[in-house]
Amino acid sequence: MTDTLKTPRPEASLPDANGQFLVAALYHFISFDRFADFRQPLQAMCDDNQVKGTLLIAHEGINGTIAGPQDGIKAVLAFLRSQPEFTNLEHKESWASSMPFLRMKVRLKKEIVTMGVENIDPNRVVGTYVAPQDWNALILDPDTLVIDTRNDYETAIGTFRGAIDPKTKSFRDFPDWVKNNTDLANKPKIAMYCTGGIRCEKATAFMKEQGFEEVYHLKGGILKYLEEMPQEQSLWDGACFVFDDRVSVTHGLQEGEHTLCHACRQPLTPEDLTSPHHEEGVSCVHCHDTRTEEDRKRYRQRQQQIELAKKRGERHLGS
């Protein structure tokens, strides 16, 4: 089995007329008992419209990000909304200068966002949605405790001013962090946010189940805030990590300057690339001291294969 994929033919790439690819981030919590039977039709619809990315489907709904030509994305979204479960599906759009995904994957999961706590259902109980236009007033209120529900590598490149960073490695760690932080009860209001809204929606459901009464979350997540909030009024500092080849976006959902270390998957700033610990595909400032020489040897061999694939006009799966 080869480790490379041939560069798609121009007609298979199909960027929009402006030379870009439309990116759609979406999720929807709903009772979806037929999710297993829906996997193949959804995969086929994406493939037929040259759409790539990852969509997770489970009993509790759908979650994921896809990219492709504008017409292809619109066709997939229309197909989803034609299903009775997803009539009210919302999505967020942005653009990428190149295809940010290598292939299309529709996966069956136990949860569409993994918290690991049984019976947390945002359809039953959830926090109060706050529109981006109202978010600043809420988080500037001295009675509000603002919590970033994302993981440490995401918060490292951007966050809202004054927000608490739980420094979690995984969303599974969030429930224990809440239970171990009794200081959370010292503020009457809890405001939570995440990239696109799905994690903080489930997190607010968990907080409500734990007895917190005034729990709020940013509707549409950071992406919607960066799309709609004028930069001169913004309380966001830095960039927002995204789970595709763009790595990060900034205000107006413009592509950020970050790249990804392919050894540890941490986002890297342009300054990080100048570090003596940075070696393309092998190590960076974040992982240099945690990798053995045997690790680095393997990574260099992989990087050599990536470079050879580029010269052949192909894309390596490890790139």
Automatic annotation (TrEMBL):
Transmembrane annotation, as ranges: none
Region (Disordered): 295-319
One GO BP annotation of this record: tRNA modification
Compositionally biased residues, Basic and acidic residues: 308-319
SMART domains linked to this entry: RHOD
Keyword Oxidoreductase: yes
Catalytic reactions on record: uridine(34) in tRNA + AH2 + O2 = 5-hydroxyuridine(34) in tRNA + A + H2O
Enzyme Commission no: 1.14.-.-
Record key words, sorted: Oxidoreductase, tRNA processing
Keyword tRNA processing: yes
Protein role: Catalyzes oxygen-dependent 5-hydroxyuridine (ho5U) modification at position 34 in tRNAs.
Family: Belongs to the TrhO family.
UniProt name for this protein: tRNA uridine(34) hydroxylase
